[in-house]
Amino acid sequence: ATARIGVTGLAVMGRNLARNLARNGYPVAVHNRSVERMKSLVAEHGDEGTFVPAETLAEFVDALERPRVAIVMVKAGGPTDAVIDELAELLEPGDIVVDCGNAHFADTRRREAALKEKGLHFVGTGVSGGEEGALLGPSIMPGGSKESYARLGPVFESIAAKVDGQTCCVHVGPDGAGHFVKMVHNGIEYADMQLIAEAYDLLRAGLGATPAEIAEIFRGWNEGDLESFLIEITADVLAHTDHRTGKPFVDVVQDQAEQKGTGRWTVQSALDLGVPITGIAEATFARSLSGHADQRAAAAEAFGGEAGAGWVKDSDRDAFIEDVRKALYASKVVAYAQGFDHIRAGSQEYGWDIDLGSTATIWRGGCIIRARFLDRIRESYDANPDLPSLLVAPYFAEAVASGVDSWRRVVVDAVREGVPSPAFSSSLAYYDGLRRNRLPAALIQGLRDNFGAHTYRRVDAEGSFHTLWATPDKAEQAE
Ligand code: 6PG
Fold it and tell me: Can you supply a Gene Ontology BP term from the record (predicted)?
C-alpha cells in the first residue's frame, strides 16, 4: 500500500480534489469506472504529486494505507450507493468511506448506519467551491464520527481554503451533519443569487442602465459590506460581451434558471422542521417560475410582458443605487439568518450539536457563498451561541435597521412598477413579521376553532380553550 488516501470518481470535482491532495503531498490512489479518465489525469497532471493509478476498485483498495480512506466522488443517488456497496465488500473494519458529493443528508444517515454495522466509518462531506475550489482550496464540511475525523481531519484541513491562517474545514457533527450544512449552504446560495438577480433587474429597469454599467455598480459594491465571491462574479458576468453577437452576454442567455435539486431539498427539509426559510423558498420557486416557458408566454400575451422602465430621475440615480444596495444587504442578512435557524433546527432534531459560529468559519473561504460578513456571523455566535436570530445580533440589527427605509422604498418601487422581486419583498415581510407585537395568527386560530374545534390558547389564561360557536352565549370550554 502506497497511497495515503484515494479518490474514486474522476469527473471534474473528483479530479481536482485528487490533484489538490497530490499537490499537498498526499500520495493519492485514483480510480474511475472508465479507465481512460483515470489515465488522462495521471498523464496530464502526474508531475503535480504522487498518483497511484488503479484500474479496478480492488486495486484501488489494495493501494491504500490502513486504515484506508476512500473518497467517493460520483453522482448523488444510485451511482453513489453502487460504489459504496462495492467498496464495502472490499474494505476492512476501521476503514473510512468519504462521500464528497452533494448527497441528501438522509441518504448519508442511512449509509452511515449501514456501514457502521460492518465496522466501517462513513463520512458524508460537503465540499463547496466548484471546480476551482476543489483544486485550489475548497470549503469542507465533514460529518461522521469523531474517530474518523481524527484520521481524516488533518488531511482535509490542509487542503481546504485558508482565511487569516485559519482553515475552512471543521468537523460539523456526526453522520449526516456535514451534508445537511452543505445543503443549507446551497439553499443560501440560491437566495443570494436570486437577490443579486433582483437587484440587477431593478437597476436595469429603474435606471435604464446597460449590463456593463451595472457591472460597475456591482464592482463598487464589492468594496464594501457586500464584498463576496458572488458579487464579484456578478460584475464579471454582466461585463461579459458575447463573442458571437457582440451583445451583452446576459442578453443571449435563456432566462430559465435550472437546478440540480439542493435548493429544493433545503426547502423540503425546512418545511419538515417548521423553519420559515422564506428567502431560500422564494429563490427556489423563482427558478421554477422562470422554467415554465409556456405559462410565461401565455401570461405575457394576456397581460403584456413589460414592467416599468427608466422611472428613476437622473437626480435620484445615486440614491436609488444606494437604496438597492441596502435592500440587497438587508435581504441577504435575512437569508443567512434563516439558513442558520435551519441549521440549528436540524442540529436539534438529529442530535448533531452543530456549532453555528464554526459553521460560519467554514464558509469564510473556498465556498460559493464566501463573503466578508461571515466574520460578523461568526463573531455574533461566538458572543452569544444562543442568539434567538442572527437578525438581532447587534451588528446585524444595526445593519438592517439602518437599511430598512431603503428596503421599503425599493420594494414599493418594484411593486408599483411591476418588477418582480419575490426575495426582496418576502425578506422584508419576514422582518416585519418577526418584529411585530401581534400577528393576525390569532384570527387564524379563531377560524380553526370555529370550523374544526381545533382549540386555541388565550393570552390571559393557561390551557386550551374551545368556544361553543353554535350556542347563543358562545360559552368557552376549557379542555
Ligand atoms: C458549491 C456549489 C455546487 C454546485 C451547486 C449548483 O458549493 O460548490 O453549491 O455544489 O455548483 O450544486 O447547484 P444547482 O445546479 O442546483 O444550481
Answer: D-gluconate metabolic process
CB of 406 sitting under 6 A from ligand 1: no
pLDDT the model gives residue 473: 72
Whether 477 shows a pLDDT value over 90: the answer reads no
**Atom of ligand 1 lying closest to residue 102 CA:** 10
Q: What is the DSSP string of 419-477?
A: ---HHHHHHHHHHHHHH-SS-THHHHHHHHHHHH---EE-SSSSSEEEE-TTSTT--EE
Strand pairing partners for 269? Answer: none
Closest residue CA from atom 5 of ligand 1: 186
189 among known catalytic residues: yes
Residue 186 CA, ligand 1 centroid: distance in Å? 6
Q: Is the dihedral of CA 256, 333, 202, 217 positive or negative?
A: negative
Nearest residue to 83 (alpha-carbon basis) of 97, 66, 95, 104: 97
75 labelled ligand-binding: yes
146 annotated among ligand-binding-site residues: no
Residue 21 scores a pLDDT above 90: yes
- pLDDT tens column, 396-405: 999 999 999 9
pLDDT category at 302 given cuts 50, 70, 90 is very high
CA 42, CA 19: separation in Å to the nearest integer?
10
Please name the residue whose Cα sits nearest to atom 2 of ligand 1: 128
| Type of residue numbered 57 | L
Any ligand 1 atom below 6 A from CB of 112? no
Report the mean per-residue pLDDT for the chain: 96
pLDDT of 169 strictly over 80: yes
**Does residue 131 line the site of ligand 1, with CB under 6 A?**
no
20: annotated binding-site residue? no
Q: How far apart, in whole angstroms, are the C-alpha atoms of residue 479 and residue 471? A: 17
Rounded (5°) CA angle 356-357-358: 95
CB 341 within 8 A of CB 150: no
Cα 30 from chain centre: 29
Quick: pLDDT tens for 305-354.
999 999 999 999 999 999 999 999 999 999 999 999 999 999 999 999 99
Does the pTM of the predicted model rise above 0.90?
A: yes
Is the beta carbon of 260 within 6 A of some atom in ligand 1?
yes
Instruction: Give the nearest ligand 1 atom to 287 CA.
Output: 17
User: For residues 52 and 28, what is the distance between their CA atoms, to the nearest angstrom?
Assistant: 6
Any catalytic annotation for residue 223?
Answer: no
Q: Is 128 in the pocket of ligand 1 (CB under 6 A)?
A: yes
Looking at per-residue pLDDT, the higher value among 10 and 372 belongs to: 10
In the beta sheet, which residues pair with residue 122? 97
As a whole number of angstroms, the distance between CA 19 and CA 46 comes to 9
Is the predicted pLDDT of residue 461 greater than 70, yes or no?
yes
| pLDDT at residue 479, as a whole number | 62
